[in-house]
Structure formats: C-alpha cells, structure tokens
Design brief:
Distance between the termini: 68 Å
Number of strands: 10
Strand content: 5-15%
Number of domains: 3
Order of helices and strands: HHHHEEEEEHHEHHHEEEE
Length: about 260
Amino acid sequence: MTQPESLERAFADVEQEASSALDSTKKLQGLLRQLHKSSREGNVAALKRVQGRLREASTELTRAVEGAAGSWLLGDEEEVGYLREGYAAELIRVAAEQGLEIHETDGQLISHPSTVRILAGDRAVRIDRKKVSTIRPSHLVELLRKNQNRPARFRPEPFLKALHEVYTALTSGTQTPPGGVVIPLDRIYRLLTSLPGSQRDYSRTDFARDLYQLETAGATTTKAGARVFFPSSTGARSARNLFTFVGGDGREVKYFAIRFEQPAG
C-alpha cells in the first residue's frame, strides 16, 4: 500500500485543480454573456466572433473538469492507512510551522485546551466530544487555534460534584479517616464511563483535561464543604492507570488518585 507524502499536499492539489476549473467556468460564462448581448442587440460580427471562442473555452473547461474529477489520487486503503500511521506526525508538523503546539500522549493529541482523536475509519477526527470531518491539517490547525482563543466553556462545579458523588459511592460503608480515603482515579473514570460507548466519547485524555481544568480553576470545595485533593503516588510515574494532560504552558501533568476531605463536625 502506497502512503501519500502528506494529506496537506493531496488536498492542495485538488484545490488547485478545482480553482482551474472554476476559472475556466468563469471564462465560459463571460463568453456566453457576450453571446447573449450580441444576439440581443443584433451584432452579427460580434456574435460570430464569440461563437468561435466558445468552442475553445468549452474544450478548455472539459479538460479542467476532468482534471478536477480525477485529482484525488488516494484510495480507501491509502486514506485509512495514512490516517493511522502518518497523519498525527503531519498534523504536529503543520501546527508547529504555524506556531501552534500539539502534543501526543496516550495515543491522543493535545492542543490545550482541546483533545484530538483520529478516527481513521471515518476519515475524521474527534475534537473534544465533537466529530469533525474537515481533516486538512492546515484547516484543523486553525480550528484548534480558534478553540484556544474562545472563552473557557468548562464548568468546574458540576464536574467536581460528579467526582464527589462517584467517590462517595465508592467509599460508602468503609471506615473513612478524617483526611478521606485515597481512591485511584481509574476507578472513578470507569464508573463515570460505565455506559456502552461512553469511553469512546469521553476518553481518558478528556478526563485528564477536565481534572487539569478543575485544578487550574481553583474549584476545590463542593457546596457541602468537601475539599478535593489529587495525591501523588511513589509508583505513579510507571503506573498504567495514570491520566496525563499537557497544559497551556507545555507542562505535562499526571493524575493518579483522588481523595475528599470532609468538613469538620
């Protein structure tokens, strides 16, 4: 299976062929307008002159349309194969050329505050929870840049409440020390995504992003007064159940466990 050099180049070639066809179309339309005018006015010399040019313009347009129709050279296998094996590296490279940082971790791409998952079989990507079918790298970089410039839509309070509810369910009936029981975040995530298809729509990296946004938002206490902490672990760096995100400053942050400290009294 032959892999393309880049999807950016492949899309640019199609765009160029489409532009040529559009130019030829405009030329033909201009000549038809001249023919319409000369026939309406009864100008025989102009009418015959335009008719001669019409045949040449029509032939030119036919060639341009054929070029445009055959300009996408990738087959189904090449498309899927490249999206699986080469697209992530190209997207990171194109982003860097345009001054945007994209990091790869846990098989997903992160461009703070967005997460990007490549859906090779669908010829699409998922940005956060939205499926996006416009995958030309330069276009996708612009979408990610716009996401960076939008006001934050994350609401820390509902997320903190959801974490506390799951945490409470897991620790119910246990002997709880004053500082709270330390629970691996992997158990929290698995309960939050227990419905079929939930982990597909809300990945581990999405969860890590929300933990990071919760922490940076400074929302640490529930309405009931329970305070959240994200303790580290001595084995966390090698643990498989880490949740990793990359912040806006390029710093990698890792989350392993959670505990809630209940209010005194």
